Amino acid sequence: MKLLVINGPNLNLLGLREPAIYGSTTYAQLQDFIQDICAEEHITVEIKQSNHEGIIVDMVQEAYGNFDGIIMNPAAYTHTSVAILDALKSVGLPAVEVHISNIFEREDFRHISYPSKACVKSFIGYGIEGYRKAILFLKDYINQNNKEKEAIKK
Ligand code: DQA
Predict the structure, then answer these.
(1) Which of 52, 78, 98 to mutate to test the pocket of ligand 1 (most atoms within 8 A of CB)?
(2) How many domains does the chain have?
(3) Ligand 1 contact, 134 CB (< 6 A)
(4) pTM of the entire structure?
(5) CA 102 to each of CA 111, 122, 124, 128: distance values in angstroms, whole numbers, following the listed order
(6) What is the domain-level CATH number for residue 76?
(7) Whole-number Cα distances in Å, 25 to 9, 17, 44
(8) Of 11, 107, 121, 134, which shows the fewest CB atoms inside 10 Å?
(9) Per-residue pLDDT of the chain (154 residues; tens, 9 = 90+)
């Protein structure tokens, strides 16, 4: 199984960035954390980060045919990006949304998530543990889907 993890703007500054909200884990440590979980779960993972909306759209499009699923923390684009929502809908890969902080307990403008409308599940406010939950959920979801496809073929 191959998963793509996409992190949006300013997540490269984890550790430095508002630690009272996002914690003290650095982006490099988050990448190691994700790699370790995926290694334990026998999942091949690629982790990408961009501060640019169009680049994130390109990443989603390029995932088609190359990955089994997407885990995404769209960061600030969560609250604005119809383009990322449309990209997720276009490729139709199972996608799971992660937010480190609880966006529903923050400013009103963070309460809406466009990409969530194309995601099978969201993990919100669990800190970086949300990425573990997303990986385990998506692994089960994809395996279950594959089993159902096999059963239909028979
Ligand atoms: C975030 C929440 C967003 O509102 C914010 O813009 C981020 C990070 C989170 O992981 O909690 O950059 O997606």
Answers:
(1) 78
(2) 1
(3) no
(4) 0.97
(5) 9, 11, 5, 12
(6) 3.40.50.9100
(7) 16, 10, 23
(8) 107
(9) 999 999 999 999 999 999 999 999 999 999 999 999 999 999 999 999 999 999 999 999 999 999 999 999 999 999 999 999 999 999 999 999 999 999 999 999 999 999 999 999 999 999 999 999 999 999 999 999 988 888 988 7
